[in-house]
Design brief:
Distance between the termini: 65 Å
Shape: elongated
Number of strands: 0
Number of helices: 2
Helix content: 55-70%
Strand content: under 5%
Order of helices and strands: HH
Structural class: mainly alpha
Largest sheet: none
Length: 47
C-alpha cells in the first residue's frame, strides 16, 4: 500500500508542476498580434 501512496504523490506533484508551468506561460508570455495575408488562386474559388 505505501507504494500506491508514493505513486499517487508523484503523479500529483507532476500534475502540479505542469499546472504551474502553464500558469507561468499565461502570466509571463504575451502574444504579439499580426495580420496574416494569404492569396487564394482563382481556380480554387470557382469550384
Amino acid at each position: 500500500m505505501p507504494s500506491l501512496f508514493r505513486f499517487l504523490f508523484i503523479i500529483c506533484v507532476l500534475a502540479g508542476l505542469v499546472y504551474l508551468g502553464m500558469l507561468a506561460l499565461v502570466t509571463f508570455v504575451t502574444p504579439q498580434p499580426h495580420q496574416i495575408i494569404q492569396t487564394i488562386p482563382a481556380s480554387r474559388l470557382n469550384k
